[in-house]
Amino acid sequence: MSRPLISQIHPWLYTACVETHRFRRGLSSATKKTARIKMSDELPYRCTAHQSVLLRKLGDVDMRLQVNKVTNLRLAADKINGVVIKPGQTFSLWKLVGRPTAKKGYLEGMVLKDGEAKSDIGGGLCQMANLLYWMALHTPLMVTERHHHSFDAFPDSGRALPFGSGATIFYNYLDLQFYNPTNVSFQIKVNVTSEHLKGEVRADCELDYAYHVIEKDHRYLLNVTEGQYYRSNSIWRAVSERKTGKEIKEELICSNFSRMKYRPPADVEVEKFGFVERARA
Fold first, then answer.
1. 64, β-bridge pairs
2. What is the pTM of this model?
3. DSSP letters of the chain?
């Protein structure tokens, strides 16, 4: 049996550590030029759009947390919708949304923590980060901060995007940020409907290039030494000329290797690695 962490024996140590990280992060990001100005009018050119389903059955997680998540997403969307990222500015999710608290109307939603699905105030905002990250990859915006879960919690029921193409956030020191290195101004539009979280990125001029995200080398793996399943892949982006369709380059976005909290589907091939010690005579 593994020994409990000190923070599990003394929970106040965990809280103190988190607040220390948050304080340091606040100091380090105070001088960064972040996007703050919002426009009610839409910029004329749409660069990309995406949507994700709000309510999904995720294992045995209480659906109440999924319903509460919708409220949390609406509150966050109101803070983000219409923001303009001018040349030289950085988009920061937490700078716009702020700390999600019960006083602001946020409810308990699902969060992934310590390898498990749990509940916390403001839970479910990772869905917003997932949407924004995916859209940013389809623009010339440069992702400067993005974090991903170290484990894969649920099977692919209803999953539309490649494994490992999302982003996790935790106020305020696990953020999603992207920088505008161009001479173009971009606008983020997000809204919550009855069934979907919807978003689009707009610009003040038409872009010269189109972006396509590709998954490569997807594998399920079994470490026979520990009897643990893993999942891996790589995410690439192809850049092409919008007018001619000619591909200019293909670049690696990230490589993923995550511990699975479920068994692979029965119809997929599982590669084995590691070794099993033989019993001594």
1. none
2. 0.87
3. -PPPPHHHHSHHHHHHHHHHHHHHHHHHTTTS-B---B-SSPPSEEEEEEEEES----TT--HHHHHHHHHHHHHHHHHHTTBEE-TT-EEEHHHHH----GGGT--EEEEEETTEEEEEETTTTHHHHHHHHHHHTTSS-EEEE-B--SEE-S--TT--SPTT---B-BTTTB--EEE--SSS-EEEEEEE-SSEEEEEEEESS--SEEEEEEEEEEEEEEETTTTEEEEEEEEEEEEEETTT--EEEEEEEEEEEEEESSPPPTTS-EEEES--PPPP-
Q: Is residue 246 part of a domain?
A: yes
Q: Is residue 278 part of a domain?
A: no
Please state which of the ranges 49-53, 253-257, 276-280 shows the lowest mean pLDDT. Answer: 276-280
d(CA 48, CA 50): 7
Angle ∠(38,148,31) on CA atoms, nearest 5: 45
Q: What is the pLDDT of residues 64-86, one digit of tens each?
A: 999 999 999 999 999 999 999 99
**Domain carrying residue 112:** 32-273
One domain for residues 11 and 57: no
Residue positions counted in the chain: 281
Who's near 210: CB < 8 A, 6+ residues apart?
239, 240, 241, 242, 245
